[in-house]
Amino acid sequence: MAGILLFGGVASAQNRPLTEDDFYKIITIPSPEGLELEVGGLAILPEGNLAASTRRGDVWMIKNPYMLNNSMPSYKKIAEGLHEALGLNYLKNKLWVTQRGEVTILNDLNGDNITDEYQTFYKWPLSGNYHQYSYGPLEMPDGDMIFTLNLDWIGRGASLSKWRGWMLRMTPDGKMTPWATGLRSPAGFGLNKAGDIFYTENQGDWVGSGRITHLEKGDFAGNPSGLLWSGEEGSPVKLKVSDIPDTGEPLYDVAKRVPGIKPPAVWFPHTLMGISLSDIIESGNDGKFGPFDGQMFVGDQGHSKIMRMYLEKVNGVYQGACFPFREGFSSGILRMKWGIDGSMFVGMTSRGWSSTGKDKFGLQRLAWTGKTPFEIKTIKSMPDGFLLEFTQEVNKETALNPESYELNSFTYKYHHFYGSPIINSMKLKIKAIQVAEDGLSARLVMDSLRLGYIHEFKLEGVQNKANQPLLHNVGYYTLNQISTVAPKLDVVKYAVKEKVAAVDHSQHANMPKTDAKAANSAKRIVVMPAEWNGVVDQTIKIGTKPGLKFDIDKIQVKAGAKIRLQFNNNDDMLHNLLILKPGTVDKVGMAAFELGLEGATKNYVPDLEEVLFHSAILEPETSETIYFTAPSKPGNYTFVCTFPGHYTLMQGTIRVR
Amino acid sequence: MIKSIFASICILFSVSVFAQEGSDFPMQKLPQENWQIQGSKWETAGNVVLNPLNTKKSVITPGNGILVAKASSGVLSSGLATQDIKLKFRFVLGAGADTRFNLGNGIAVLLENTGKTSGVTGSISIDNGKIITPLADAGKSVGLWQTLELVYSPAKTASESTVIEKLVLNGLTIHENVFISNQKASSVNDKFTFDNQQGFFAVKDFEYLQFGNNKPVSLSELSYTLQETNGFDRSFEAKATPPVSGKTPVLSYDVPNDYNRYIINFKGKLKVDEAGKYAFTMDYQGAGYLKIDGKQVTGSKEWTYREPMTGMIDLTAGEHDFEYQYQTIFWRPAMGLFVSSGKIRPYALHVSSSLPLPEMKGGVFAEPSGDKAQLIRSFVFFKDKKRTKVISVGTPQQVHYTFDLDNAALLYAWRGEFANVTDMWLDRGEPQVIKPIGLKTELSGRVPFYANGGSPLDSVDVYREFINTSYSLNDQGLPKFNYKWKNSTFSLEYTPSGSDLNVSVNASDYNGFSILLDQGQEIVKIENGLYQVDDHYIKTDPKLKPEIISAGKSKQLVTGLNKQLNYSIIW
Fold it and tell me: A618 lies in a domain?
């Protein structure tokens, strides 16, 4: 049950740090050149086949998608002429596809797999706005089907035709019941074993950060645009647009006084846990995909990665934690489906939105290698804190040491603006720790628990018995309810020693301990130095373009020249600008990402000597001018934005001659 | 070889003499007296309704306005010298017709459908026998009036090239920037002529604009005010920073400033040497407006990337007040202004550094391959509105159509290349519209069926009453669209036939329903089974007796359904 390292490999495995690839392998399913496989939907077909629908309106049948013995898959187009097919499923012995304006059943009348009849199952009106994407079907245990409809985008979300922003439930004979609303970009939704529906939401207007919400009939999940239709016949939602306050308080607090608002089960903090959540699927109970049976996996389009979510029900309310799981997919993840062998097919597209995975589209399969990683398996609510379960026995000394942990809690604003900064962030103190006899769990008692808040756990110091660190040492728990089932822990018996001094938050222990703000200001001079006597040798203007780009990618300066650099953030996201020593952008970019929550207070600038000069992190539509003297050593220096998720794409070269 | 093309045209400007759609310069009509009809075999007529099936049954009404060449009538001179020109005319061909429109210098445009030359209508022939193929076969069917527009610049010396800047046939650009060299210099005696070599030909509405080389409009005394703004706020809200003013010798955004977002407002004098109607074209990345004498001529509050906007204004000779305002949005600043008129090609009033070449993207195109039709579902603009439940079918026979699934209505039929899908599949594809490529005709776009005793419907409830149930594909991949309504089922199927489109209509309760075959401004019965509806024909079984009825300002062609109703669309 615990992770078994391959017998002959123990010694070598300990010689290098283990990576995600050791536990879950990504296999690329190649497609023929010229085939724009922008995956919108995936369906498992009989006989071991896979079907993929694309944004260009095709459906492809892929034979031999498991590519056993390194054999090649084969592709056959079985349907075309659909309008952006973002949902596909094989149900009731038929292929169902959801396109922008219609749910269509693809009928093959002569048995050659190619669709001969496109049957209109259900249709709804469209406004002509490109953002009206439509998704489904998801089959319920009773045979009904669930669909969701994306909002329009007119500079903000809007519901310009009936039912946009809603989840709809349909019977097999086409009777439709509106189910829930408040949705913005509901590209992914799935069931758990109990038959409850969860959907993923993207950061945007009224949505402070990505999140997963449990949707029951009549729920309102937050974005008011869909409430335009709550008065329609059959609507189970009673709220009206005017019922929704726009105060910037946390959603959880607003939900307390406005019945009908459903707070999320799990928040996925923006940029730390993805930037655009997509599909969600629950792992089976057969152990084929590692030690996470019953947990859910959530895809991210912008960060090309899959995260993991553990859910529990406390006082009848769903809540739980999200963890990093697997990154490095080739494009933006949109769809995930379980294959017949317990591996996961991952369908991807990034046209129109940049993603960390640089390909424009892709199809890959994620398979467990059989090795169990050392991970935080679950985080569970306790009356006085939390219980953390692990996939392997911990080294008890590290788990009992409070300095192995760093805990914070924070939340987001609920308002009409796009996204939200982190608010009310507070460090948490651990009062007591109990590690279980079997070493597989640790119980923490904290000094504060705030309802509705996201509790961040960083376990940098916890190791397993082989003295290895956790593969992923962070998790974010959304505390909607406090469980009172287990008894409280004896805090006297398990008290931790008081720490002698305040914990130093420096991320890189071997860096000189300078004051971050002072270091920041030495490299960021916003007033012309007096000794320049008003003379600037060169003025540079750098702006931004949509798609994580600077508007210029090559600049030349003379060595030693006095430079005035005006950085204009013309985009609708936060950006900064750093100038780095040649060849160091990956190191600095990664380090900025690892600043985590603290990054926001440091302009996402890591304390590294590789960073020469930098601007502050800029809000959209603002600019900053910095002054510096160009390096004396000629070379190709890099300018880059290190806001999490940006650095791989948003770079340019400053050539010093 | 292509030597001094720069002398004859400036290829740096991005503005053509076609200004904006629908707002072209009023052209001068060439009076009938100019044509050297006396001594030629050509005649005049007041109206011509050609019968494409039998030219002899055509109806030619005596009168004026149309020049007619009944058969092999030879040369007719326009009396207009070949020169820097934009011209336009309408013409119609009979069956087996071949006419040359001579541009002087041995260059001619073919207007023919004999199939005997290696060209088609719209090909350019050069006296050395060379044929320049058009970008598309845009000629209409026999008997239908066609429109040709040409912007042309003949070589003025032997070392220059003659340039066919643009040739547009029936709305399709079929030649663009064609350089013909090694021709003689044009002579003052060269005239534009028609040479009807074979078959029936008629021409009318010949208009033109002659271009000179002068620059009668200029700017002077320019000063500017620069105001920093808070982002791309539509209300032009200014920041607290004080405005910056100055004088500038040239119209350009590049004045000294440290701002990221700003509005720059130029004021000065516009000097006009010659009174007349002028077109001013703004081209920028952002938002802005142009005012002359305090009146807005063009510009927009919408944020646009390089979508030139043109406004026309009548100006007296002398000085006028000039105001040009430009606001930067998220793109790098770029702004420019062009002036043109019926007598001058566009030239820039800004300096070239203020308006660099725009970033242009290659397109995404769809073309059926193999032996089956290709289907694309999308939005499409029809009569300036977006239809959202639309499917387009491209066939290997190169006859294509777009169909509104909700309303069971044919929208467009066209032949040639299939579709430009750039607006669907480039980046986010925000417009999501398909654009037919090729020679197209527009149909009624209306729900076709109605109960007997009633009239064609303005609209119907497509969610609860008139329902599209499915479409099925035949062996060629062509769909048959199925509907149910009022206890009857209906189906529509479209099949290419040569360069025409056949329509096949079925209904289970055919005795209870009628069909709107077509609707147009004018419907003329040519003979039994052939009706001209605006720019295309509807061909039915000669025994079918459809009625032509009035509906407001339009005419409708209607008939009761029968067991199997077939008809064709010819354009």
Answer: yes
Which long-range contacts (C-beta less than 8 Å, at least 24 apart) are formed by A654-657?
Answer: A654/A555, A654/A556, A654/A557, A654/A579, A654/A630, A655/A554, A655/A555, A655/A556, A655/A557, A656/A557, A656/A558, A656/A559, A656/A630, A656/A631, A657/A556, A657/A557, A657/A558, A657/A559
- pLDDT tens sequence across B470-522: 999 999 999 999 999 999 999 999 999 999 999 999 999 999 999 999 999 99
Whether B258 contacts chain A with CB within 8 A = yes
Number of A–B residue contacts, CB under 8 Å: 89
Percentages (nearest 5) of helix, strand, coil residues in chain A: 10, 40, 50
Query: Residue B250's domain spans which residues?
Result: 217-354
Q: Residue B205 half-sphere exposure, CB side, CA atoms within 13 Å?
A: 12
Interface test with B, best of A76, A96, A117, A548 (most B CBs within 10 A): A117
pLDDT digits (tens, 9 = 90+) for A276-292: 999 999 998 899 999 99
Q: B359 in a domain, yes or no?
A: no
Q: Which residues of A touch B379 (CB under 8 A)?
A: 126, 128
Residues B267 and B370 reside in one and the same domain: no
Q: In total, how many domains does chain B have?
A: 3
Contact B470 A119 (CB under 8 A): yes
HSE-CB at A373 with a 13 A cutoff on CA atoms is 25
Query: Do the domain assignments include residue A291?
Result: no
Q: What is the CATH number of the domain that holds B282?
A: 2.60.120.1560
Residues of chain A positioned with their CB less than 8 A from the CB of B374: 80-81
Residues B190, B305, single domain; the answer is no
Q: How many distinct structural domains can be found in chain A?
A: 1
Contact A35, A77 (CB under 8 A): no
User: Does A392 reside within a domain?
Assistant: no
Model confidence band, residue A498 (pLDDT cutoffs 50, 70, 90): low
CB-CB contact of A474 with A424 (8 Å): no
Reported confidence tier of residue B20, pLDDT bands at 50, 70, 90: very low
**B window 261-290, beta carbon within 8 A of A:** 261
CATH of residue A613: 2.60.40.420
Rounded to two decimals, the ipTM of the complex is: 0.88
- Same domain? For B369 and B339 the reply is no
pLDDT at B222: 95
Mean pLDDT of chain A: 92
Nearest-CA residue of chain B relative to A565?
B258
- At A515, phi and psi to the nearest 5? -70, 120
Please indicate, yes or no, if residue B360 is contained in any of the structural domains.
no
Partner-chain residue, chosen from B330, B388, B473, that has the shortest CB–CB distance to A128: B388
Give the pLDDT confidence of A49-61 residue by residue, as tens digits: 999 999 999 999 9
User: CA-to-CA distance for B549 and B214, rounded, in angstroms?
Assistant: 54
B428 and A83 within 8 Å at the Cβ level: the answer is no
Q: For residue A121, what are the contacts with CB-CB under 8 A and spacing of at least 6?
A: A96, A102, A103, A104, A105, A170, A174
* pLDDT value at residue B238: 66
pTM confidence score? 0.86
CATH number for the domain that contains residue B56: 2.60.120
Q: Answer yes or no: is B499 within a domain.
A: yes
Position A169 pLDDT exceeds 90: yes
Distance CA A476, CA A469 (A): 18
Judge whether residue A12 has pLDDT over 50: no
Q: Is residue A592 part of a domain?
A: yes
